[in-house]
Amino acid sequence: MADLTFISDLHLGPGAPGVEARFLALLEELAGRSRAGRAQRLYILGDLFAFWVERPALARRLHARPLEALAALARAGCPVAALDGNRDFGYGPVFAAAAGAQPLGERAVVEAGGRRVLLMHGDELLTADRRYQFFKRLVRSWPARFAARRLPEPVLLWMIRRLEGVSRHEKAVKPPGAMEPDLAEAARLASAAGAGVLVCGHTHRPGENDIPVAGGVLRMFVLGGWTEDGGTILDWPEGGQPRLARWPPGAPDATGG
């Protein structure tokens, strides 16, 4: 058993040094607890990076410090696992080797507090946003993934910047309801996984929901996005109850797209 920490939506990259500093401080805190003999486990529920491509040289050049810090955390005895996000999907052997972490794909079920817990990034719950769901299928298609691995680096980075611009524009014009998770879909996916708890991110709107389901209640936690002030995480101590918390403690709340 171990204390569990869940995070998402840091969007690390060259333009986010403040967020990176907060993230590295969290990893050092978890490593210290682990070295002191209190077992820890870290789950990253997508969008750790602003983007990810399974190309070793590019990963080392753009994400060296976070990857090295994750590997150091794993060496300190704290296992790390990461889900795909909507920005950094496709984690594979390059990420695993560089970060000392376990790629989990799009969803995973873990045990915590004697309960089955469904983990996901959360973008699949935005069922009302059909434009986004189409775009997601497009960029995750086999041809798009193949091109990302083969294109010359300058061309790839130019395309990523263009896609980021499209994403910012789309967020700016979305109706408010488009970023609201579909609770019925959350209940359906959790039921299919046999889970009584669901943890996700993506919306940058941290909160908790009790969703009535057949035979009981589904407990849903939504993590927050990070800024240079920090982010909202989920702490689940061994033998205790899960709770949303700010990192670092006392940091102002962060919301956004």
Short description:
The chain has 257 residues and is an alpha/beta fold.
Q: What can you tell me about this protein's structure?
A:
By secondary structure, this protein is of the alpha/beta class. The chain has one domain (3-127, 182-247): 4-Layer Sandwich (Purple Acid Phosphatase, chain A, domain 2). Helix content is 38%, strand content 23%. The protein is built from 7 helices and 11 strands. The chain has a 6-stranded mixed sheet. Strand 2 (40-44), helix 2 (56-75) and strand 3 (80-83) form a beta-alpha-beta unit. Helix 2 packs across helix 3 (93-99). The longest helix is centred in the middle third of the chain and has 21 residues, at 153-173. It is globular. The relative contact order is 0.17.
Main attributes?
5-stranded mixed beta sheet, globular, 6-stranded mixed beta sheet, 11 strands, 7 helices, 23% strand, Purple Acid Phosphatase, chain A, domain 2, alpha/beta, 257 residues, single chain
For this structure, what is the CATH homologous superfamily? Metallo-dependent phosphatases
Strand content: 15-25%
Q: State the CATH architecture.
A: 4-Layer Sandwich
The average pLDDT value, as a whole number, equals 90
CATH class label: Alpha Beta
CATH fold name: Purple Acid Phosphatase, chain A, domain 2
Count of separate structural domains: 1
**How large is the radius of gyration?**
18 Å
Shape: globular
The helix/strand series, from N terminus to C terminus, equals EHEHEHEEEHHHHEEEEE
Structure classification = alpha/beta
Record the strand order, biggest sheet. 4-3-2-1-10-11
Largest sheet: 6 strands, mixed
